[in-house]
Amino acid sequence: MKTNKEHKSPFRNLLVTGGCGFIGSNFIRCLIKNNDFSGRIINVDKLTYAGNPENLSDIAAAFPSRYIFQKVDICDAAGLEDVFSRYDIDAVCHFAAESHVDRSIKTPGDFIQTNIVGTFNLLECAKARGDKFKIFHHVSTDEVYGSLGADGLFREDTPYHPNSPYSASKAASDHLVRAYYKTFGLPATISNCSNNYGPYQFPEKLIPLIVLNALEGKQLPVYGDGKNVRDWLYVEDHCEAIWTIMTSGKSGETYNVGGKAEMENIIIVQMICDILDEIQPAKDGKPRRGLITFVKDRPGHDRRYAIDFTKLNKELGWSPRESFKSGLRKTVEWYLNQKKWVENIKTGAYQAWITEQYGS
Ligand code: NAD
Ligand code: TYD
Q1: CATH fold label, 13-201+234-259+301-321+348-358
Q2: Please, which residues have CB within 8 angstroms of residue 235's CB and are 6 or more apart in sequence?
């Protein structure tokens, strides 16, 4: 994250929700390590299957006065109110969500509760802070815009057209945030970003799932014909974009964030196979591309996402730094080097540890 003099934050007690997840933990690490923010970070996380405190164990140990963890469900309004007053919260960066499309098809109710009701609870707490409150940043997705054909890009004024319970719940939360800005004057910004990748991503999402399956010689499931397109954003570029928006963005505005890296799923899976074959050849010596298996398509599978981030670039000077080729290699290497982290996820040891620390 670049240290920019203009990035002086007007807030001191930043509540980050979902900070034990993939993007939230990268955000907290970037913020604390790069000295962009000298105040306190209060991380509120329910620790669902996707929340792993190990993602920030180094930060918790090194910065005990600047990083505080609270196991709280954002659907628990009273629990949230307590955190807001106890820590004198004057800014929010809201990541907490049920985030996986496939799960939203199986258990949509969790998505409605956390993504919509949880966001509403946070907005109410922020509103109750009155003039003390400086900024509510809501992290959302490009999936709210629906699916593109072969051409075109999502812009901030593209009409919402969500197709999955996940994207519909995120769309609802975006509307709530905007409504609190308009109706109550709550200072708020929204970012809608493309698919993130990088360290600490839970291995249910395409890239880490393929890396870990390939290492174990398991099938590599590709939905449909594999030609669905996503735009890929390296997580640290995303974190930098969020901080830029929080500190320099205009209240009431939405900013699209993209990685300038449109890619068909099948190409990504092949690239991962080739990187692994080069760094750590399979024991049987066979190329891992042989593990690729086309499987039944996801219902309602959006064909293509692509982002126009001109507004963020022109108005706030942000653009992604990482190329997909180098970012993907760095990511694959990270998973290869994090044997204990991977093992704890695979065996469920991280969840046993959470139960031991916090109860069930
Ligand atoms: P993630 O699933 O890795 O992490 C979500 C975190 O939220 C976990 O730590 C989980 O324990 C926590 N959480 C879930 N329900 C909660 C609740 N009720 N109360 C408190 N904490 C709760 O998600 P991620 O990939 O890091 O995504 C973060 C945000 O970014 C989400 O809002 C998601 O919609 C958005 N987003 C993600 C991507 C992506 O590619 N990962 C792309 C666009 C937008
Ligand atoms: P995913 O990582 O689940 O993110 P999202 O659905 O939010 O875009 O999926 C990325 C793409 O990869 C999407 O087009 C679905 C596809 N996919 C597969 O082909 N196989 C898989 O096992 C998974 C998890 C995803």
Answers
A1: Rossmann fold (3.40.50)
A2: 22, 23, 26, 196, 197, 198, 199, 200, 201
